[in-house]
Amino acid sequence: MKLSDELPVDHQLTTVYRYGAALCGLTLLVFGVLGFADELSPFNTHGHHIAGMSTNGLLSLISVVVGLALIVGGIVGGNFASTLNMVVGTLFLLSGFVHIFILDRPANILDFGMTNVLFSFVMGLIILTFGMYGRVSSKLPHDNPYWRRRHAREAARESLAVRRRGQEEKSALSTGGASASPVLPAANTRRES
Questions:
Q1: What is the model's pLDDT at position 27?
Q2: Cα 2–Cα 22–Cα 118 angle in degrees, nearest 5
Q3: Quick check: 111 and 44 in contact, CB under 8 A?
Q4: Which DSSP string do the residues of 152-166 spell out, in sequence order?
Q5: CA distance 11 to 62
Q6: pLDDT tens-digit map of 40-74
Q7: Of 102, 98, 147, 105, nearest to 124 (Cα)?
């Protein structure tokens, strides 16, 4: 059994996961390709800028790989895209925090500047939001597959009640609107002596 088998099949949510992953992946892919088009050296940390952010060949490569992964996640969709969005979004946030502390140090091999850190935070939050949409909340609607998975008993009760109501309506329609068991007037059971 795989982890994905344990997750509920998502219905309308898959559109959000697909478009979110594809949009963010496309943004990263364009940034990475622009870096390659500028023929940057892999570990150059002398401040080459593309789209207002400093970059080098290694950051371009990482951007292209992550962008392609998100686009593939958008194509696959479903729980895979949601989970991928959450993982990549978390990694972007962690990258932002790490790079805040190594901005002007030799460990900054990706040539991050402050705009890169801000972009990492913003992109991480956007990707993470797309991944968690309809999945992580205290007030999910009862038709949401993630709510149904977390509250299996209550979901089963609601489903049973809906089925019973449907069967009652069906039997009422088949009998011409009359009740299946008519109520008889109470008989006088009092004995007189």
A1: 92
A2: 105
A3: yes
A4: HHHHHHHHHHHHHHH
A5: 32
A6: 655 555 656 677 777 778 888 899 999 999 999 98
A7: 98
